Amino acid sequence: ETISVIGLGYIGLPTAAMFASRKKKVIGVDVNQKAVDTINRGEIHIVEPDLDMMVHAAVTEGYLKATTKPESADAFLIAVPTPFLPYAEGGIPEPDLSYIKAASEAIAPVLKKGDLVILESTSPVGATEQMAEWLSTARPDLSFPQVAGEGADINIAHCPERVLPGHVVRELVENDRVIGGMTAKCSSRAVELYKTFVLGECVITNARTAEMAKLTENSCRDVQIAFANELSIICDKLDIDVWELISLANRHPRINILQPGPGVGGHCIAVDPWFIVSKTPEEAKLIHTARKVNDAKPDWVINKVKIAIADFLQANPEKTAKDVTIACYGLAFKADIDDLRESPALKIAEKIINIHKGEVLLIEPNIKQDKKYFNAHLCSHNYASENADIHLMLVDHSEFKNKEIEGGVIVDCKGVWNKKT
Ligand code: SAJ
Q1: How much is the ipTM here?
Q2: Residues flanking ligand 1, CB < 6 Å
Q3: Could you give the CA distance from residue 291 to residue 270 in angstroms, rounded to a whole number?
Q4: CATH topology of domain 2-208
Q5: What is the rounded CA–CA span in Å between residue 116 and residue 345?
Q6: Which fold is adopted by the domain 239-412?
């Protein structure tokens, strides 16, 4: 049995390596020639603990190879991005399914009777049916489940990934899997495949419910973080320490409030709820509002920094704005990772660099290499804590936790220094 994984990114590559580690022959396909070459050397182009060893072993033992051109296989797993289409400020972002379409059209010529095609990409409701349409248009000689039902030549299912970046290798094995086949046969084929390495339960449903389940998980988290972020703004106004407040409320046996922060980042939680909102804009009121609350938090933080600058200048009348040094602690989208995608901390730091006349220092212990233009601003924690006038805590990396800040004005978005947000 040969398995082909289309899209060798944060989900596709670990999944491909996992099948290969169970001695399945895996063909990884990606449009990025550089990524393909890197993988074929037994190296990786993304950062994820333990993945480098797995890919290295899979390639050297001959179970995994990467290519830019799809080849014949028995099962195809599609793990390509589903970003937004461009949208107007304040509008509702619509999902961009063009990568799924391109992947479908790329594998269509090599499909044969009995093959299984699984969509793993996080997708709006209806995307799996849409994928089946694209495949059947490209291959009129084969039958697909939306028309042929259980007797179809090709089996199709949606099985969303749900792994947490930074813990992908463990969660791929341990997490339960939602398996949404277009027919019962499609589901049982998919379960059989995932059982190769999944120790969690494989729970069967239909494709639309599986699509919605994934969107629901991330929307639920987004709504809960929005609640925490709104609380932090309310508490700031009422002169209450939100961190103390949440820890007190969480002593109630049925309350579990999440942590506020500078906003919501990453490529999932800040994106997926829009797939629900764009499909059902009239109905998805709470989910839409939560998105707006979380997206507005970075600007609220920037305003707090402006207030801190004004306070500092009032206390030091001999100084002007260009004498004020601001240190931003953390750039990643969350603690203890190096991923900058959709990072509110990065967005805030960039904006401060643009608007502030004085020096801006950036501290990001997880970024080892020089990164773009903000390289010039990167400095050590010690240098920043001794030299900055305003200390802006953006990401609660472990490295920051036991270090105190002496002097200066503190704006703490993560409660690390136990001061008000
Ligand atoms: N955040 C807070 N407060 C919190 C928790 C998180 O502000 O109390 C922020 C983080 O700082 C970050 C953002 O939310 O900016 C998202 O972080 P996260 O750790 O909640 O989630 P992700 O984006 O790393 O991964 C999520 C996971 N989904 C859920 O936990 C429901 C993961 O299981 C999914 O597989 C992943 O999205 C995905 O790929 O969809």
Answers
A1: 0.96
A2: 122, 162-165, 217-218, 221, 225, 258-259, 261, 264-266, 268-269, 333-334
A3: 7
A4: Rossmann fold (3.40.50)
A5: 41
A6: Rossmann fold (3.40.50)
